[in-house]
Amino acid sequence: QVTLKESGPALVKPTQTLTLTCTFSGFSLSSTGMRVAWIRQPPGKALEWLARIDWNDDKFYNTSLKTRLTISKDTSKNHVVLTMANMDPVDTATYYCARTPMVIGGFDMWGQGTTVTVSS
Amino acid sequence: QSVLTQPPSVSGAPGQRVTISCTGSSSNIGARYDVHWYQQLPGTAPQLLIYHNTNRPSGVPDRFSGSKSGSSASLAITGLQAEDEADYYCQSYDSSLGAWVFGGGTKLTVL
Prior knowledge:
The complex is a heterodimer.
Chain A: E1 3-7, E2 11-12, E3 18-25, E4 35-41, E5 48-54, E6 59-61, E7 69-74, E8 79-84, E9 93-99, E10 109-110, E11 114-118
Parallel strand pairs in A: 2-11
Antiparallel strand pairs in A: 1-3, 3-8, 4-5, 4-9, 5-6, 7-8, 9-10, 9-11
Chain B: E1 9-12, E2 18-23, E3 36-40, E4 47-50, E5 64-69, E6 72-77, E7 86-94, E8 99-102, E9 106-110
Parallel strand pairs in B: 1-9
Antiparallel strand pairs in B: 2-6, 3-4, 3-7, 5-6, 7-8, 7-9
């Protein structure tokens, strides 16, 4: 059974750095073609892709946020970590991690999401 | 504003057929990048509904189907049921942005 779960602070202050962890089970990020991504959704708005990390440690970022994002993985712990620097109230959103195997192309399994509010 | 354009809302009566369009451009759908569709029930995470334009993951009813032509794609839902009331998103890759992109979402109301 494949599961993903996001964890991190519910509240951050403006200018702070957000660190989110995706803990997954039921698959290995070492397997060829396996990938994990982060996607966010502001309240009442559409989904926005943020970053992706691949089995071979290739990393991809949303160009509009690239300077603020860092994605990394710890294969032994089944973790993917996303950091976002210089948080702003417009970054208030639900943040999801999702699996995206190459053979599927899309995001086939999602975590439940974690809500992050940016406020002083 | 998303590079993939969806109607904000569609509606239909139980048993009817509805379609949701997703219009892109030559840098995404028109560039032959695949389109994927997601269903987001109220208060829950999105779920993959259609991948690679026309394929259904196991467990997705065959009432849901996808198609793609030129720079556009469509999701069709037949035999509408009350449980289909949700937000639907298309998703593809845009080479100009170098990013995976989502449509703005379409809210389906079952009358």
